[in-house]
Amino acid sequence: MNDGPTLQQIFEAKRLLRRYMASTPLHHYPGLSKLLDAQVYVKHENHTATGAFKIRGGLNVVARLTDEERKRGIIVASSGNFGQAVAYAGRIFGAKVVVGLPEDPNPSKVEAIEGWGGEVVLTDTVYDPEPEYINTVARERGYRIISDIGDMDFIAGSGTCMLEILEQLPEVEVVILPVGGGGFASGVCIAGKGIKPEVEIIGVCAEAAPSPYLSWKEGRLVESPMGTFAEGIGVRVSFDTPLRIMRQLLDDFVVVGEDEIRRAMVLMLEKTHNLAEGAGATPLAAALKLKERIKGRKTVLIQSGGNAALEELRAALATVDSETR
Question: What is the pTM of this model?
């Protein structure tokens, strides 16, 4: 495959990342297994230093920059988690990091980015393929732009999650994960299909931000409105390289609604005692729609992150409460 990093590059990323982060846990949950009539495991990417999977790609990208690039500074566009990851990596490697966030960002993610030493700027172009503001600042200040979408080092770092799953549960049959820009899914697909071709990998996106699914289905970039509260998968348009990889390797795609995501957040809290942000709860929301398909099978739900704002959690609890009255 010429579209993305090789399996060897993913193994190289894994060796590099072991210096800076431990493997995240993979736990079996009887409550979820009973609910879904399957053997359900959760891969807890919320248990990283930044609370999300993006740390894998962020560390791998920043570690491979030159000293001169780090000295100049780094700028990224992010809904929050990638910004945290790069700010964290910047602290480790001594690089100045600027993060462009949406105009109404998740306050906990802003606090985390600034806590790791990153500078936050607000811009409404974050969800566009080529944020004009980010490009402008990069030119003016001489910063190096890095991306969590088509960057090969980011995709390779993301693929290390699947290497861990295969080590922790070699007999895995199904993996369900959220898809926004597609960089994470691309890495997981390359690693999973490269080692165990028979594993079924299923992506999930929000009905209120369906571009990833529509692009995958039609085989071309399809722009769509972005109205989901799950900012981790909130994109208006998909991206070339991840789309090509997913078209080749992703087995299927599921679209879930906003209330389905909120219900899944509450179920994750109830059944696993872990807080899942919206994107991190979508694999469970999808699994509930795929009960017959995954029945009896060893199924891994990748909880991509746990950085939920308090108002998101309140809205999720209110949704479930209103349904049970």
Answer: 0.94
